[in-house]
Amino acid sequence: MVTINSHFDGSSDIENEPVGENDSADLTWSGYLPFYSVYDDSDDRFYNVNASFSGSNWTVAYMAFHAKGGSKATISDGGTNTNIGVLALGESSKVVLDGTQVDYIEGWGGVHDITLGDQRTRLVKLGGDEVKVTLSGRIDTLDLGGVDNTVTMNGDSDINFARVYTETGLSKFNINDGGDMRVLTANGGDVEINMEGSGRIRTIEAFEGTLDMTTDERYVANLFAYDSVSVIHIGAGGIGAVQIGSGSAMSHVITAQGHISNLEFFDDDAVKMTLGDGGAGTLRTANGNDKVVGGSGYIELINTRDGNDVVVTGSGYVETIRTGEGRDKVKLNGDTGSIKLGGGNDKFFGGSGDDWVIGGAGNDLMKGGGGGDYFVFGDGSGNDKLRAFKSGDDLMLIADHEGGFDTLSIEKVGKHKVIEYDGGTIKLLKLGKADIDVDDFSFI
Question: Which residues contact 311 (CB under 8 A, 6 or more apart)?
Fold first, then answer.
């Protein structure tokens, strides 16, 4: 192993011991050095280079480290108003730059651990077995290809665009209070994102692998995940548009304290979703077996599409619930605007408010709640059952039926009343002795 110790202060000669093809005397400079390189491609010796910075107002335009047998650059900073144009780190590095500004940083192979202060770096591009980047300043573009990658943003740090690409590794993003990343694109591998306080990533794109994401008090604008099993915890700041899907029927978990503006799942994916105080705008699940649990916040639309889905509302108002094909279950704990059941054999359990339920195709079981409920039937509604129908409070609405009440067939069958209309039936469970009359119907 070859060890080289070099000190940069803007004026003192720099040790440049014979290194392979780059044999030369020590470097003399005065505030500006166009090129510094430790490079050996001639044999298999490992180079351990220790570079320390001090002084002020100096620049090294290009600093590079590489050896055929491997190298590690350890850089410590103590300068002020010091600059490096390009820092090429070779195979491994341990870099702490508190005050020195570097425009471009690159490295490949091995292990890289980079800590940057408040300065601005235009591009950081690193690969290898393990990559760590910690910053308090700004990075315009962060491009990571390590097997495992860790990014930590402290204070008012800022990353304009970050990309990570790995086939099997784990990439972690710790966005601490004050940190702000505009766009993150993750290709392959597993991704963990943790946002704390006002720290946030505005737009996240994740492809393949898994995604485990937690947000906090700041608003996140967009999340797009494809072929990525997702576990998402949304904090008080809420999230804008969420799109998740795959071609392989993946299952996802979402919990939300804050507001979700628009969420849409695609293909045959399934989701278990629990909402909190923030409520939601539009929620559309895919064709898997989904479960949506509401909270105390207002929800504009829940649309579960196909699959055997479960919707349980909270105390918050839900404007519209629509289910798709499959055997769905809807249970209300708060007030709603309207519920439209899909084509399967569905179950509906009303809440304390006045519910408006449209039975779709299939043989549905519907139970009203404490309010005055409206149950809508029509051609193709199937053979449905009503439980706990309250004559005088609840109402059965039959669409496109000619002849009104007089053309209905109402019979007592055991403990039940059976109403026949236009090829469909309504069985009023345990109401065989009840008087059902014209006031219990409306024809629309």
Answer: 291, 292, 294, 302, 304, 321, 323, 328, 329, 330, 331
The Cα 138–Cα 158 span in angstroms is 5
> Over the chain, what is the mean pLDDT?
93
Tell me, what DSSP letter sits at residue 407?
G
Q: Which one is predicted more confidently, 14 or 310? A: 310
Strand positions, DSSP E, 16-89:
32-33, 36-40, 47-53, 59-67, 71-76, 83-88
| Residue 104 to residues 125, 126, 140, Cα–Cα distance (Å) | 8, 11, 10
The C-alpha atoms of residue 232 and residue 272 are separated, in whole angstroms, by 10
Give the pLDDT of residue 67.
Answer: 84
pLDDT score, position 20: 44
Q: What is the DSSP string of 258-313?
A: S-EEEEEE-TT-EEEEE--TT-EEEEE--SS--EEE--SS-EEEEE--SSS-EEE-
Quote the CA–CA distance of 147 and 393 in Å, as a whole number: 65
- Strand pairing partners for 340? 322, 358
Residue 375 phi/psi, 5-degree rounding, is: -115, 125
The amino acid present at 405, given as its one-letter code, is: F
Give the H/E segment covering residue 158. Answer: strand 158-165
Q: Which residues contact 406 (CB under 8 A, 6 or more apart)?
A: none
Structure tokens at 207: 């492809």
* pLDDT bracket for residue 22 (50, 70, 90): very low
Which DSSP string do the residues of 313-377 spell out, in sequence order?
--SS-EEEEE--SS--EEE-SS-EEEEE--SS--EEE--SS--EEE--SS--EEE--SS--EEEE
Are residues 196 and 170 in contact, defined by beta-carbon separation less than 8 angstroms? no
**Cβ neighbours of residue 273 under 8 Å, at least 6 residues apart?**
253, 254, 255, 256, 263, 283, 285, 290, 291, 292, 293
Compute the half-sphere exposure of residue 220: CA atoms within 13 Å on the CB side of its CA.
39
Q: Domain map of the chain by residue range?
A: 1-84
Residue 296: the pLDDT is: 98
How many residues appear in the chain? 444
Work out the number of other CB atoms within 10 angstroms of the CB of residue 157: 24
Q: How far apart are CA 236 and CA 197, in angstroms?
A: 10
Query: For position 26, what pLDDT does the model report?
Result: 65
Cβ(273)–Cβ(312) under 8 Å? Answer: no
